[in-house]
């Protein structure tokens, strides 16, 4: 089975708590506080591994948790940092939040993405010494690590992709053109999972990767026949080879079949429908010469009509004698036979030429995160291709905004204070400890919480809630 989607829960480790300790040595009276800091919790990372084919290694396991940091000790000994967790994913994996927002796109070997950050360790009591507070008997608690559900969605990274109806002969073409050995048979839906092959271009050192996805049906853009899942694997391709059964799929007009799949590509995501295409008329060995000539001419006329309408999938340009011009309509239509090998050498050369001329840096297509993501419509460059994103081998995702701001509200139970920094501050102290509670009160005063509560009408004895902590206003 080919697994191209997985939902996992990642949880970073909690930070270790700081130590409350005092130096106790012979001949050293009143040695003073020497509690060390707690260690930070371990992180959770995703790492792009070019040796992986799909997400099947994550099957059967949905929770990943890093280790917590160790607590601080006396003599100012700092606790050890918790061990991080690394999750290997294949190249082409997109990392999505629960709301389908794009967190990261794993397109480079060994690329690392931080998806859950370990909690900070608490400070030991030696860090709270000042001229007034010379022997603090409190320390900070370790902070909880981040935890969240994320969705991993794999989109194959290929230079060119085969698209078409079931039984058009895509797998046979992949088998003939590349080193891949997909299952082929004389019935539709033989291919049930995406496949990749490497194709060598005759007469040059150029090679390219070619993707074969299961056959598409009319309505694929709306999910018919798992259409969304299959179409997603074509989104990174720079060039689409639109394979048409020239004999007619179950008696249908080949031109109608071509129009149906073209409409599905356009409906899935607009940028996919505008990706440059070559039309591959397969199975020409199964029709006579007159029928072949007639149907090839019909496709030439169709391409000319699409060009007059300005369809970008057939209006792209190549360099001809130093000038960029659109290839003749006939050059976009390639009669071939996967059974006999007819026309395949010239097709390899044409695909290689297109990729070499237009691909240059394939990053633009490979970084296209257009897809089934809700609301993800990234600005595109010329020809409908997504503009390149900044390339980086080390990506850090920071979901939280810890700006110094807070909101005060009132409900049936009393007043409440909301704000990341305020809530984080309250979580880091043991309020059963009187010294810690006083220190926390001083910090909240500096942030202006008490003044704001007073302006909002808080009276002595009113209940105030910050996070899960409830106390009386004084």
Detailed description of the structure:
This protein has 474 residues and is an alpha/beta fold. It folds into three domains: 1-154 and 372-400, Distorted Sandwich (Spo0b-associated Gtp-binding Protein, Chain: A); 160-366, Rossmann fold; 407-472, 2-Layer Sandwich (GMP Synthetase, Chain A, domain 3), CATH 3.30.300. Helices cover 22% and strands 22% of the residues. The protein is built from ten helices and 21 strands. The protein is elongated, with a radius of gyration of 31 Å. The model is unreliable at 182-192, 217-227, 360-396 and 399-403 (pLDDT under 50).
Short description:
The protein is of the alpha/beta class and 474 residues long.
Keywords:
GMP Synthetase, Chain A, domain 3; 3 domains; 474 residues; Rossmann fold; single chain; Spo0b-associated Gtp-binding Protein, Chain: A; 10 helices
Overall pLDDT level: 80
Shape: elongated
Q: State the separation between the terminal residues, measured CA to CA.
A: 64 Å
Assign a percent range to the helix content: 10-25%
Number of separate strands: 21
Kindly estimate the percentage of residues that lie in beta strands according to DSSP: 15-25%
The CATH homology group name of the largest domain = P-loop containing nucleotide triphosphate hydrolases
The profile of the biggest β sheet is: 6 strands, mixed
Return residue spans where pLDDT drops below 50 for at least 5 consecutive residues: 182-192, 217-227, 360-396, 399-403
**Helix and strand composition category:** alpha/beta
Tell me the strand order in the biggest sheet: 10-11-9-12-13-16
Number of domains: 3
Radius of gyration: 31 Å
CATH architecture of the largest domain: 3-Layer(aba) Sandwich
